[in-house]
């Protein structure tokens, strides 16, 4: 009976890296990764990727995060109009889903979490800095999307960094 009570008291924090190549990372109050996944997407007509809304709802209902940080959709000149629109759509989807499920969240600018997480790290590329941070913090984690992949999934790594930032902000660090 005590084990069940302990499980129910576990705080779960979520970091969301928006975009169809983004990711979600759930951590507990000990900063242990509970689950990390690439952004749920499906192939739409004409082979385009779209957010898999039902899969997103399912994973959020399964883990019920106590607090979520969503990375703010930003305009990046190299992204183009379609990419910016897609990220904005993703941000709206997450806000709507989290609100409907009555889950607490906030939107965080990338520069804010990066300044905190990458403090003291020399870096030029934020994707490389995320990878370095994640490999140091979680040396035994597999960051590949699948067994066939050769490169780590930057969306899951960014989501992990956002989740750790979430932990730090919710624990006064």
Account of the protein in words:
Strand 4 (41-43) and strand 5 (49-51) form a beta hairpin. This protein has helices at residues 2-9, 53-63, 80-100, 110-117, 126-137, 154-170, and strands at residues 12-17, 23-28, 33-38, 41-43, 49-51, 67-71, 105-108. The termini are far apart. The model is unreliable at 1-8 (pLDDT under 50). The protein has 173 residues and is an alpha/beta fold. It has one domain: Ribonuclease H-like superfamily/Ribonuclease H (Nucleotidyltransferase, domain 5, 2-Layer Sandwich), CATH 3.30.420. The strands form 2 sheets. The protein has a 5-stranded mixed beta sheet with strand order 3-2-1-6-7. It has a two-stranded antiparallel ribbon with strand order 4-5. The chain is built from 6 helices and 7 strands. Helix 4 crosses helix 6 and helix 5 crosses helix 6. The longest helix has 21 residues, at 80-100.
């Amino acid at each position: 009976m005590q084990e069940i009570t302990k499980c129910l008291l576990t705080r779960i924090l979520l970091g969301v890296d928006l975009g169809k190549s983004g990711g979600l990372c759930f951590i507990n109050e000990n900063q242990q990764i509970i689950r990390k996944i690439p952004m749920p997407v499906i192939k739409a007509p004409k082979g385009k990727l779209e957010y898999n809304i039902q899969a997103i709802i399912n994973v959020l209902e399964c883990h019920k995060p106590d607090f979520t940080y969503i990375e703010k959709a930003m305009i990046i000149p190299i992204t183009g109009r379609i990419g910016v629109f897609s990220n904005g759509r993703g941000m709206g989807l997450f806000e709507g889903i989290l609100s409907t499920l009555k889950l607490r969240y906030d939107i965080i600018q990338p520069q804010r979490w990066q300044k905190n997480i990458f403090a003291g790290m020399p870096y030029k590329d934020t994707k490389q800095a995320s990878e370095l941070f994640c490999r140091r913090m979680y040396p035994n984690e597999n960051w590949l999307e699948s067994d066939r992949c050769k490169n780590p999934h930057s969306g899951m790594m960014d989501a992990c960094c956002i989740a750790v930032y979430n932990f730090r902000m919710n624990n006064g660090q």
